[in-house]
From TrEMBL:
GO terms for molecular function: DNA binding; DNA-binding transcription factor activity. This is Hcp transcriptional regulator HcpR (Crp/Fnr family). Pfam families: cNMP_binding, HTH_Crp_2. Residues 157-225 form the HTH crp-type domain. Keywords: DNA-binding, Transcription, Transcription regulation. It comes from Salinispira pacifica. InterPro entries: cNMP-bd_dom (IPR000595), cNMP-bd_dom_sf (IPR018490), Env_Response_Regulators (IPR050397), HTH_CRP (IPR012318), RmlC-like_jellyroll (IPR014710), WH_DNA-bd_sf (IPR036390). GO terms for cellular component: cytosol. The keyword Nucleotide-binding does not apply. Residues 20-143 form the Cyclic nucleotide-binding domain.
Length: 234
């Protein structure tokens, strides 16, 4: 562990952009990390940071760079589960599970910087700051929801099927209203397991065919029955 007085202003500012600590002022965050121990590591692009099956007893927070979470089988086939972009906690939902072993391997896509906080230390922090606990649980829940949706969309064969289904489900929650996508196009492409340019092209086709209309990052279904038919017949 690094001494608790080694947190730099640069790290503190990046942590402040992380949802877990965004409610804290910079001086509060700096004081917090000077009171509690943490470890800091830098990783070169392409390096394996953690392997599937490793015990996960400290929360890793990506403060710089990008990580790829992947699963490989015995034949060498690799499935990319998700990309993690700084600043972001990593696998918070695994930390307090009965089986706290990583279900994925983590690789640095570019040069990356992580810090790690042992779960016992994190619990002490959360005991002093209930909002930290809430955001930690919220992040874990959001990750589970995202991964569950990713698995669900794997049953669809084409991008058009995935996108039509997704838009129809959003519209079902607020029929006839503008659809504000909760994810960026990059994250949505990751959810579908496709490239962003391919997703953008299919989205553009739906607009050109007047099945949906677009206003900035918001969309509206113009022809629901045609969208359903298009999805089923693709």
């Amino acid at each position: 562990m690094l001494p608790t007085d080694t947190i730099s202003d640069e790290i503190a500012e990046k942590l402040q952009d992380c949802g877990l600590f965004s409610h804290l002022h910079l001086h509060e965050l700096t004081r917090l990390f000077r009171r509690y121990p943490f470890s800091s590591r830098r990783h070169e692009s392409g390096n394996l940071i953690a392997q599937r099956g490793d015990e996960y007893s400290s929360l890793m927070i990506l403060v710089q760079g990008e990580l790829s979470a992947e699963i490989s089988d015995a034949q060498g086939h690799t499935l990319k589960v998700e990309s993690l972009h700084a600043p972001s906690p990593v696998a918070a939902g695994i930390l307090f599970g009965d089986d706290n072993h990583l279900p994925v391997s983590l690789t640095a896509v570019v040069d990356a910087h992580t810090i790690s906080i042992h779960r016992d230390v994190l619990l002490k922090m959360a005991g002093e700051d209930p909002k930290l606990l809430r955001t930690l649980l919220q992040d874990a829940g959001n990750r589970i929801h995202f991964l569950a949706d990713k698995l669900r969309f794997m049953k669809f064969h084409t991008i058009r099927e995935k996108l039509c289904t997704y838009l129809l489900e959003l519209d079902q929650r607020s029929p006839g209203k503008l659809l504000n996508l909760p994810y960026s196009m990059e994250t949505l492409a990751e959810l579908f397991g496709v490239s962003r340019p391919s997703l953008s092209r299919v989205m553009g086709n739906l607009v050109d065919q007047e099945l949906i209309s677009r206003s900035g990052r918001s969309y509206r279904i113009q022809n629901r029955s045609a969208l359903i038919e298009s999805c089923q017949n693709d």
